[in-house]
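Recall that a protein's primary structure is simply its ordered list of amino acids. Everything else, from secondary elements to tertiary packing, is in principle encoded there. The following example makes that idea concrete.
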Amino acid sequence: MRFLIIFILFFIELNAKELTPTFIYEGSGGVTDLVYKDAKLYSATAEGAVDIYDTKEQKLIQTIKVPMIKDFTGEEVASKIYSVDIIDDNSYKIFDEYIITVNQDSNLDLKLHLLRLL
């Protein structure tokens, strides 16, 4: 039985392939959430920003900053974004896309920010 397990692990190791990335995106902070839609990559960061990348052109399109918050000591710090979601609703004739972010303030209250894409 041990020989069989060792043989299987050895066989798997022989067939392993090294993967290399085709492109590396530099974020504006530690990434907490990723959403991919319509060849765009939306990256929420711990530095209070949403970076939007075009995956076809392989470049940064836009960075959206969320307002700073005050922590328990009264210092202004970046608001960590926990989640990012895309709303694409054609019933709004003025705007095409919105981004909803979820973050937390110094009182531990969750806040939703509705951000419009330019």
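The chain has one domain: 24-116. The chain has a mean pLDDT of 76.
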